[in-house]
């Protein structure tokens, strides 16, 4: 049984010990997903599996047989950047760019979680609609580190994209 990666079928690795991160980078040559700490602490390896964010360095590729995986390379449509990718450019949401693919994939998954009403550690009212304030966004993105210090631009880009989706100005992140 194969897995779907960025819309295309891919056979899982023969060796069941290969991480999803190494499978993407070394076997499929999808190098947008980055290897940061290789311990699940930095978020640079974040990808989407069936729309949910995961740390690919902590996952075995064979676990995702039959599932749909989206990497940073799979976010653009017909050569056009995903709105969040464009917002990262517009808001200087990167410096070196190393963490950017994981940040973007994580933000897309995070927005979907919030839409489904999943609370964060700081969500005040667990029975209400989740309002993605700046503090809420910062908390929800805290698993993705940026060593360059572009956090303000990252949060601004995410906030703009979510607001644009909510108001119908542009395609959203979820």
Strand portion: 5-15%
Number of domains: 2
Structural class, by secondary structure, is alpha+beta
Q: Distance N terminus to C terminus?
A: 28 Å
Any idea what the shape is? globular
Q: Order of strands across the widest beta sheet?
A: 2-1-5-3-4
Supply the CATH class of the largest domain.
Mainly Alpha
Tell me what the structure shows.
The protein is α+β, with helices and mostly antiparallel strands and about 170 residues long. It has two domains: about 70 residues, Roll (Ubiquitin-like (UB roll)); about 80 residues, [2Fe-2S]-binding domain (DNA polymerase, domain 1). The chain contains five helices and five strands, in the order E-E-H-E-E-E-H-H-H-H. A five-stranded mixed beta sheet has the order 2-1-5-3-4, with helices on one face. The chain is globular.
Structure at a glance:
This protein is an alpha+beta fold and 174 residues long. It contains 5 helices and 5 strands; from the N terminus they run ββαβββαααα.
SSE blueprint:
Layout: E1 3-5, E2 8-10, H1 20-27, E3 46-49, E4 52-55, E5 68-70, H2 83-90, H3 100-115, H4 134-140, H5 151-167
Parallel strand pairs: 1-5
Antiparallel strand pairs: 1-2, 3-4, 3-5
Helix pairs in contact: 2-5
List the keywords.
174 residues; alpha+beta; Ubiquitin-like (UB roll); DNA polymerase, domain 1; 2 domains; five-stranded mixed sheet; 5 strands; 10% strand; globular
